[in-house]
């Protein structure tokens, strides 16, 4: 059996610990995502989806528990090692794309590669190939403001995949799109999972989209449970 792309074990996380405003969000959350698997994460607002995604993507540290990405246990690693792993192994897509407005679509996909030490020529070639993959070859030199919402989100996909991550984490990636555009963006995402062996963990309120992924899990009182 192949190594899980992501394994979370016993993740605990609270905010404002020891104060009257204390919120305990995760209480021993366990989850595995295999290469080439798309897992939907559904839960009511405030249940801890973003918290879980941030911990899985090494943007935040749990109070207890272990995050293992591609077989490497991350909690005991240095901040520097975690930053490198995050750049190389993890891609993020958010509900709002957060593209850099002053840069073109192409540049938005090149920049994370340069930060990861890729040579400019190779980074440009990969960015063009990714844009072509999502049907935006002709839009490479447009800035985000000159692209539609769905096009911007497709560029954000390319940016998330720029460094060929093992793991894609998405927080409501189609949440601000109309149904047709959402459908197109989701189809591209699933094609990439199927074709590249990418592991995807996708928080969504859209149960139709969730049903088309391989598995749905939900957060129940701070733990991850398989949805029926
Ligand atoms: N920095 C923080 N300080 C205090 N409380 C926080 C902080 N971040 C999140 N929380 C609280 O933790 C809980 C989980 O938040 P989180 O954003 O993970 O939920 P979510 O399931 O992603 O919600 P939504 O679907 O609304 O985005 C919420 O009650 C939230 O108010």
UniProtKB/TrEMBL annotation:
Species lineage: Bacteria, Pseudomonadati, Pseudomonadota, Alphaproteobacteria, Rhodobacterales
Gene Ontology cellular component terms for the protein in this record: plasma membrane
Organism: Meinhardsimonia xiamenensis
Entry similarity comment: Belongs to the ABC transporter superfamily.
Molecular function, one GO term: ATP hydrolysis activity
Keyword Glycosyltransferase: no
Domain ABC transporter, chain residue ranges per copy: 6-227
InterPro entries registered for this protein in UniProt: AAA+_ATPase, ABC_transporter-like_ATP-bd, ABC_transporter-like_CS, ABC_transpr_LolD-like, MacB-like_ATP-bd, P-loop_NTPase
Keyword ATP-binding: yes
GO BP, sorted A to Z: lipoprotein localization to outer membrane; protein localization to outer membrane
Keywords linked to the UniProt accession: ATP-binding, Lipoprotein, Nucleotide-binding, Transport
Protein name, UniProt field: Lipoprotein-releasing system ATP-binding protein
């Amino acid at each position: 059996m192949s190594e899980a792309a992501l394994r979370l074990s016993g993740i605990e996380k609270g905010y404002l610990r020891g104060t009257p405003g204390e919120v305990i969000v995760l209480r021993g959350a366990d989850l595995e995502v295999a290469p080439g698997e798309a897992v939907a994460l559904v839960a009511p607002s405030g249940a801890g989806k973003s918290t879980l995604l941030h911990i899985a993507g090494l943007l935040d540290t749990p109070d207890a528990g272990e995050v293992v990405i591609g077989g490497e246990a991350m909690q005991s690693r240095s901040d520097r090692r975690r930053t490198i792993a995050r750049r190389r192994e993890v891609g993020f897509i958010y509900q709002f794309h957060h593209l850099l407005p002053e840069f073109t679509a192409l540049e938005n996909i090149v920049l994370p590669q340069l930060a990861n030490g890729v040579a400019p020529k190779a980074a440009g070639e990969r960015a063009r190939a990714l844009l072509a993959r999502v049907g935006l070859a002709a839009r490479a030199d447009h800035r985000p403001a000159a692209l539609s919402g769905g096009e911007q989100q497709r560029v954000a996909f390319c940016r998330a995949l720029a460094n060929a991550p093992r793991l894609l984490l998405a927080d409501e990636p189609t949440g601000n799109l109309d149904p047709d555009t959402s459908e197109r963006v989701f189809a591209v995402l699933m094609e990439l999972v199927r074709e590249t062996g990418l592991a995807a963990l996708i928080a969504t309120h859209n149960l139709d989209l969730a049903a088309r992924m391989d598995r749905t899990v939900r957060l129940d009182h701070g733990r991850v449970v398989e949805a029926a």
